[in-house]
């Protein structure tokens, strides 16, 4: 795979900050957004197809939050789906390579605990970050796994699940956001497992690029981030290159998982050279 030289340089100097999305965990067949909408609909007493006429996933999740005065019951059910003891982390070579990148921070919008399991499986210590207190207690010698949308072990307030919680996250004013803004300076973000169809992530890239532009005095020649994609999309690629300051790397569509593992293995080799 032809990896851009700026990304190789970032790997060698341990300045890569992975940002991991849901597609990274596809090998485990975790619930999709459409399946989650069905689950939410059932909890609020609607047929899933009828519920979609009333709102999208975030709106339905907010409705559920209001009606049940929180998410505790539904959160417990989702926890069992996303963090089943039947999931064998050794089956995901991509997850097992994350600890070998020697990244100071790894961000994820996933609710599952698979990255944490990968670190435990490979015997590498880590900090799990979901709240401000976690930052205070974190060891600087360990990789910090920053749960950007919370997880099911945290309380409802730190779980990004409803429409309001998504909007609040995109304000970029919480301790997690301030940490991300700091990590953007002098480092290169590497987005893994995201789709160009995800509007929330596209809006986040726009906000991050604007924040970075406001914080630096000279324009950086190299992209502030790269995204690894499974399918080519010339429209998306042009927007990333010219409007978002993001480089696009395409995997081999004939075997995406192997191509992703090969890519991460090469990045790991540079990070440990």
Task: Tell me what the structure shows.
- By secondary structure, the protein is α/β, with parallel strands linked by helices.
- It has 2 domains: 5-29 and 90-271, 3-Layer(aba) Sandwich (Rossmann fold), CATH 3.40.50; 33-82, no CATH class.
- 47% of the residues lie in helices and 12% in strands.
- The protein has 13 helices and 7 strands.
- It has helices at 5-12, 33-43, 48-54, 57-67, 72-82, 93-97, 114-121, 132-137, 163-169, 175-184, 199-215, 234-244, 256-271, and strands at 16-20, 105-108, 126-129, 143-147, 188-192, 225-229, 246-250.
- Strands 3-4-2-1-5-6-7 form a 7-stranded parallel beta sheet, sandwiched between helices.
- Helix 2 (33-43) packs across helix 3 (48-54).
- The longest helix has 17 residues, at 199-215.
- 33% of the residues are buried.
- The model has no long low-confidence stretch (mean pLDDT 87).
């Amino acid at each position: 795979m032809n990896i851009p030289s700026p990304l190789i340089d970032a790997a060698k100097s341990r300045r890569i900050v992975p940002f991991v999305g849901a597609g990274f965990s596809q090998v485990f067949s975790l619930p999709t957004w459409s399946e989650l909408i069905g689950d939410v609909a059932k909890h609020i007493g609607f047929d899933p197809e009828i519920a979609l006429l009333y709102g999208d996933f975030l709106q339905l999740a907010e409705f559920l939050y209001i009606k049940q005065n929180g998410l505790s019951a539904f959160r417990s059910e989702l926890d069992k789906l996303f963090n089943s003891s039947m999931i064998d982390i050794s089956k995901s070579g991509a997850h097992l390579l994350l600890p070998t990148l020697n990244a100071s921070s790894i961000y994820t919008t996933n609710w599952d605990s698979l990255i944490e399991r990968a670190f435990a499986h490979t015997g590498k210590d880590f900090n799990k970050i979901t709240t401000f207190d976690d930052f205070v207690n974190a060891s600087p010698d360990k990789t910090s796994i920053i749960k950007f949308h919370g997880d099911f072990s945290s309380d409802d307030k730190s779980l990004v699940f409803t429409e309001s919680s998504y909007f609040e996250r995109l304000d970029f004013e919480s301790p997690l956001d301030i940490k991300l803004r700091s990590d953007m300076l002098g480092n290169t973000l590497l987005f893994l497992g995201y789709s160009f169809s995800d509007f929330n992530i596209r809006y986040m890239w726009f906000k991050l690029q604007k924040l970075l532009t406001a914080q630096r005095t000279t324009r950086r020649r190299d992209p502030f981030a790269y995204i690894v994609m499974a399918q080519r999309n010339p429209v998306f690629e042009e927007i990333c290159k010219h409007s978002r300051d993001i480089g696009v790397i395409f995997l081999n569509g004939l075997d995406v998982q192997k191509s992703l593992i090969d890519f991460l293995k090469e990045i790991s080799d540079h990070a440990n050279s």
